[in-house]
Design a protein that fits this description.
This protein is of the alpha+beta class. The protein folds into three domains: 3-78 and 145-369, BirA Bifunctional Protein, domain 2, CATH 3.30.930; 82-143, Herpes Virus-1; 388-480, Rossmann fold. It is 34% helix and 29% strand. The chain has 16 helices and 26 strands. It has a nine-stranded mixed beta sheet with strand order 3-10-11-19-16-15-14-12-13, sandwiched between helices. Strands 23-22-24-25-26 form a five-stranded mixed beta sheet, with helices on both faces. A hairpin with a 6-residue loop joins strand 5 (82-87) and strand 6. Helix 3 (69-75) crosses helix 11 (325-334). The longest helix is centred in the first third of the chain and has 22 residues, at 35-56. The chain is globular and about 80 Å long.
Length: 481
């Protein structure tokens, strides 16, 4: 489904909306979740916790959003968390250089080029200001962190640009207090903040966004001792190799050197299996190994999980072997030893990271779920992730029928997300709930008064059955189990 159609529906139906939209000075890159979007996100995270955290026995923490300057000095963000920008000599408009060049030459620019390399491309391709066609100044770097001051002396601090740093800082304490053994995982869900130069396309590039990050701490000397079951070894994942996407068994990817070790292979499988339960079309997903200048400077291996949308391939999860970079730099920056004892040897663990963009995952699920089915538009969310599970519709606005409808609502609302609607024709009510992905509709009519049965309608097949009210909860539990 086209991005514009998905975004229009999301705005009209209460999935999300631009923050402060009634004010003329509202800034791009900030969005609010509406009731449907929030319910969808919560259910997505319920699946994430069950299928990854619980399955892999990963701990979850909730760290502070504001962090001191020295954290980001040690992590490298103060020096390296930058985007290239260029200013117009005449109108003073500011542009992100790589996007400006890409728009002109119609192909992707390699990330990580120096200022002089960007300046050379601008000169060679005769690139001018998009607004007034004037010449551009020299390229410069723009740090994307939000700087804040704490207390009356305004001590320099920053809103976190990612959720992982507090995991690294908390690791030594958690290792002791939770009596951890390597390999072990620690996760965090929360907001991150990046002062993007040109945020665009609603949930796909934000200045304030949700991340779900998992950091797997392991002993690099024992990486080959990691056990992998036959089920995982024989599991195939789609990997882009030589510009072709191939379904490759993990065992073959390991023997061919495509994936460096069993630990990473196991988490790629678990990640793929998780997304298969969220409603994404897995035929439109791939893992892509990063090459050339793409990976972060500290990563020894990087592979992204990507999804194909109407806007092209979008990264949903960045998977990086961060080596011991983070614990070493924070140990040095804080003058605190971050080592652990394993087998009577002091070691600094290495880290494999799965960094997930939640908002763009939510958008991708919506785009993959929305279809045109004849004359109706249907959001085919799977039952586990649908923000509203059941619609309850009195066929006529009669006191007896409405009374039964409200009684059914009271019966079900603790166990299910309910929408109760008694206005408009039944056909229009069905169309409304089809469009927001409600899997089951219950209709109360005159026959209900006679035999105490209601009609259950399935969203996808539109088939209807009649069920006794006293059997209704059992039938619904069976449907959603």
């Amino acid at each position: 489904m086209d991005y514009e159609i998905v975004n229009k529906l999301a705005l009209e139906r209460g999935f999300y909306a631009q923050s402060c939209e009634i004010y003329g000075d509202s800034q791009a890159g900030f969005w609010d979740y509406g009731p449907l979007g929030l319910s969808l996100r919560n259910k997505y995270l319920d699946i994430w916790r069950k299928e990854i955290l619980h399955r892999c026995e990963i701990l979850e923490i909730d760290g502070a959003i504001v962090m001191t300057k020295n954290v980001f000095k040690s992590s490298g963000h103060l020096d390296n968390f930058v985007d290239p920008i260029v200013k117009c000599m005449k109108c003073k408009s500011i542009f992100r250089v790589d996007q400006l060049i890409e728009k002109k030459i119609k192909k992707k620019v390699i990330e990580g080029l120096s200022n002089s390399e960007f300046d050379k491309l601008i000169k060679e391709n005769d690139i001018t200001c998009n607004s007034c066609n004037s010449k551009l100044n020299k390229c410069e770097k723009f740090n994307m962190m939000f700087k804040i001051g704490i207390g009356p002396t305004y001590n320099e601090s920053y809103l976190r640009p990612e959720t992982c740093q507090s995991i690294f800082l908390n690791f030594p304490r958690l290792y002791k207090t939770m009596r951890l053994k390597l390999p072990t995982g620690i996760a965090q869900i929360g907001k991150s903040f990046r002062n993007e130069i040109s945020p665009r396309q609603s949930f796909l590039r934000l200045r304030e966004f949700y991340q779900a990050e998992i950091e797997i701490f392991f002993n690099p000397k024992k990486i080959d001792e990691f056990n992998l079951s036959d089920n995982l070894l024989n599991y195939s994942i789609p990997i882009q190799v030589d510009n072709n996407i191939k379904n490759i068994k993990i065992s073959d990817a390991l023997s061919d050197g495509i994936i460096p070790n069993k630990l990473i292979g196991s988490y790629l499988v678990i990640l793929h299996q998780f997304y298969s339960k969220t409603g994404l079309n897995m035929n439109e997903c791939r893992f892509r190994i990063l090459e050339n200048n793409e990976p972060a400077f500290y990563a020894s291996f990087s592979i992204d999980f990507e999804v194909k949308t109407s806007l092209g391939w979008i990264e949903l999860v960045a998977c990086n072997n961060r080596t011991d970079y983070d614990l070493k730099t924070h140990s040095k920056g804080s003058n605190t030893s971050i080592t652990i004892n394993e087998d009577n040897e002091k070691i600094i663990p290495h880290i494999f990271e799965l960094s997930m963009g939640i908002d763009r995952s939510i958008y991708s699920i919506m785009e993959h779920s929305l279809i045109n089915d004849g004359e109706r538009r249907v959001m085919k969310f799977n039952d586990k992730i649908a923000p509203i599970q059941i619609g309850i519709f009195p066929l006529m606005n009669k006191e007896e029928i409405s009374k039964i409808g409200l009684e059914i609502k009271e019966l079900l609302k603790i166990d299910f997300n309910i929408i109760y609607d008694k206005s408009g024709s039944i056909g229009r009510r069905y169309r409304r709930v089809d469009e927001i992905g409600v899997p089951i509709s219950i209709t109360i009519d005159y026959q209900t008064i006679e035999d105490n049965t209601v009609t259950i309608r399935d969203r996808d097949s539109m088939k209807q059955i009649r069920v006794k009210i006293d059997k209704l909860k059992d039938e619904l539990n069976r449907k959603f189990s």
